[in-house]
Amino acid sequence: MNTAARSRSPLGRMSLPSPGCRICGFTSRLTRQDTIAEVLLEYAAGWQRLLRTPGVSSRRTGASAWSLLESGCHVRDMCLLFHNRLDAILGQSVIAPRLSVGADTDTARRYRDEEPQQVAEELGRAAGAPARRLAALTDDDWDRDGPRLSDPRLTVGFLTRHLLHDIAHDLARAVRDSSQQ
Ligand SMILES: [Zn+2]
């Protein structure tokens, strides 16, 4: 992260620590501002590969709460919600306009009935749009927080790292589960 940007914060706030995870291997070195968009696209590509594997089922296996298909839908929707949150903090982007699929992310969506190939397509777009936006952010953008968020440490940088870890963690679990079938 850019420590110079943080030190300019008028609130002098402390940033929250980057997640370091022994389970999925996600570390703070993956969260550099100049590579973070690339990392998001790599994880999205990993999910797309899994979803495009022939015979992807909506069946839940092992201790996982969700099937691979359901997890893929969840990752897609996390990306869409993240993009909406970026809009809320930074204003609407002209670089990455809101996706139409983003209008339908309520929890009533029945993930297990979705079609894996289509989810893979949507996931690619859902991650690609915010990735393009992240790649264009300034140092000050990374340090901004949402006016309606209760904790000023919830900056764009923190929320992005948090999203990436969620996606990486779910991906590591899905790869492990699919290799055991
Ligand atoms: Zn993890």
Automatic annotation (TrEMBL):
Keyword Signal carried by entry: no
One of the record's GO molecular function terms: isomerase activity
Keywords for the protein's UniProt record, in alphabetical order: Isomerase
Stretches assigned to the DinB-like domain: 64-168
Record-given protein name: Maleylpyruvate isomerase N-terminal domain-containing protein
Organism field: Streptomyces thermogriseus
